């Protein structure tokens, strides 16, 4: 069995699977180590552990220490490489590309093998581009919908709107402060995605939407593929060939 973990800014998402079937899965608060430990301890001991993390190094070290003590396992933390799985990284320093973005690119290319735009709409809104030869052309990183919403509410004197729920109001001009904020933030996100699409307009790219706010953008791109588990799906491509994430011998 393999335990796969997508440790983001907001959520700690995990999945325990064998070769073809998901045996258990869940998501908890990314910053609560006690809750994370409680979720993991209920899992059957895996044979390998693959992780895509954007957390601080001290969080990653805590997970390494815990899994080694509890399961005698050393996690494989995915890292972007100059070239892997048919994708060539567009960053001059591949190690600085977010692991979640990299493994998602590997999964998307593995499935589609065509020009594509990968949108991950979470705490941050990231958009990555790949051409038909598997060359990553770089990407965009901006604040996600909720982050922009909180910032506007916190740092302006008279734009105070409820933080929950987040209605999908489209991009028409708002007729209240709440709807004006919602429409503006949605339009800003759409503008970023459309700007990315213009870079590949002559290649008719596929669009992949992932992350907690992916469904907010789907009505505007009905041809897009919604792929909630793309980071988890890409982890095996990133880690399996390294032989990492397996049992620590002699422990």
Which structural class should the secondary elements be placed in?
A: alpha/beta
Question: Which CATH class of the largest domain is shown?
Answer: Alpha Beta
Which overall shape is indicated by the principal axes computed on the Cα atoms? globular
Helix content: 25-40%
Head-to-tail CA distance between termini:
19 Å
What name does CATH use for the topology of the largest domain?
Nucleotidyltransferase, domain 5
Please tell me how large the radius of gyration is: 19 Å
The beta-strand count equals 12
Q: What percentage of amino acids are in beta strands?
A: 15-25%
What do the pLDDT scores average to?
90
Low-confidence stretches: none
The side-by-side strand order for the widest beta sheet comes to 3-2-1-4-5
CATH architecture of the largest domain: 2-Layer Sandwich
CATH superfamily of the largest domain, called what?
ATPase, nucleotide binding domain
Largest sheet: 5 strands, mixed
């Amino acid at each position: 069995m393999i335990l796969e973990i997508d440790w983001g800014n907001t959520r700690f998402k995990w999945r325990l699977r064998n070769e073809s079937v998901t045996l258990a899965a869940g998501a908890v608060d990314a910053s609560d180590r006690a809750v994370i430990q409680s979720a993991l301890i209920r899992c059957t001991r895996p044979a390998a552990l693959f992780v895509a993390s954007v957390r601080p190094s001290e969080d990653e070290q805590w997970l390494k220490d815990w899994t080694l003590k509890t399961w005698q396992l050393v996690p494989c933390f995915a890292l972007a490489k100059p070239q892997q799985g048919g994708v060539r990284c567009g960053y001059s320093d591949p190690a600085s590309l977010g692991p979640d973005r990299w493994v998602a690119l590997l999964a998307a290319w593995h499935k589609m093998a065509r020009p594509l735009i990968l949108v991950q709409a979470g705490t941050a809104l990231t958009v990555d581009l790949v051409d038909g030869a598997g060359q990553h052309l770089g990407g965009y990183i901006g604040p996600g919908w909720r982050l922009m919403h909180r910032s506007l509410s916190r740092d302006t004197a008279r734009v105070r709107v409820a933080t929950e729920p987040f209605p999908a109001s489209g991009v028409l001009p708002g007729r209240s402060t709440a709807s004006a904020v919602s429409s503006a933030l949605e339009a800003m996100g759409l503008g970023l995605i459309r700007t990315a699409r213009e870079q590949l307009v002559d290649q008719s790219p596929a669009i992949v939407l992932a992350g907690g706010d992916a469904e907010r953008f789907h009505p505007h791109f009905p041809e897009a593929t919604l792929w909630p588990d793309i980071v988890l799906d890409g982890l095996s491509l990133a880690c399996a060939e390294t032989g990492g994430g397996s049992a620590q011998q002699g422990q």
